[in-house]
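User: Fold this; tokens only.

Assistant: Input:
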Amino acid sequence: MKATALSSKHVEAGARMTNFGGYEMPLKFTSINKEHKAVREAAGIFDVSHMGEILLKGDGAIEFISEHCTMNIVESDINQLKYAHILNEDGGILDDTIVARLSEESCYIVPNVGNNQRIYEWFAERGGEKFIKDKTDETSMFALQGPDAEKTLQEITDEDLSEIEFFHAKQTEINEEIMEKFDEDWPLAETPIIQRSGYTGEDGFEITLPNEAAIKLWEQLQSLEEPPTRCGLGARDTLRIEFGFLLAHQDFDESRTTIETGWAEQAVEWDHDFVGKEKLEDMKETDHQLLKGFEMEDKGIPRHGYKLFDDDEKIGEVTSGTRSPILKRGIGLGYLDPGHQEEGTEIQVEIRDEKRKAVVKNPPFV
């Protein structure tokens, strides 16, 4: 099992560790509910170094990634981020990712845990091997999330963080202590990268930098008079479900398309050619299952794989579910057949052989 550069810090802090995608990761430090509420009300910090970092660089690299993801990166500004899907030729989702454009001829993508090799090989098969380098092992990323995230991070840098717009990044030195630990041979950029993005639905930042510099920055944030709450994978999951964000290998796999996930509006720019586009265009004209949110009316917590019903008719299946710490009731995501997808539609979730009432609701739930 792999460890991130910050794993020893998590163990020292008393985290309950777990195996996630082959990495030893903190599940929680105190309780999932406390960590969840800290992000909704103040600021929480997550180690997300298990996510991949693949650099694409060189003459033609930007054109290549634009042809192999659903967003037009050729038209991206420097330091702009775009959420995109990488599809196979049948429109099936190989992965979802953020593409961050770093310069005129370079960008990096963030594959989900366990997908680095798969995406690398997919690109290589299609002539992209000359552009791509997997830099996951030498790179750390952590997320500072919540309404107080900007105020917290601002305490350790003179950079004006308010200038960073949503889904944009800034390549910045942060402070002298960080740069003393900075690896000058780090290939992604000449400085750490702070991007205004996240997986919680709250304001916040995802910070990418070499491993030693990441350890120093983590220590600086934890030494503040009011440090951000350490958070684990448990809270990360409940937070993202409350906003309906997708989880790879759970809410989608290669058998599902962007259209079916309901994320085409956010994840597809139709003004360029990309692998799988023709299939998506065809699906726009047909009825198909859609990934929808739902909220429990009866007691019970929906879980991945539970069946969804309309009386005795099976109409779908749960992909993600939890008890919302904010709503204090069960919520979930699941694929539903045509005719059962409208908000407000009553459905049932089969929990322990008992059908329990729920209602279709479009995320976010809070």
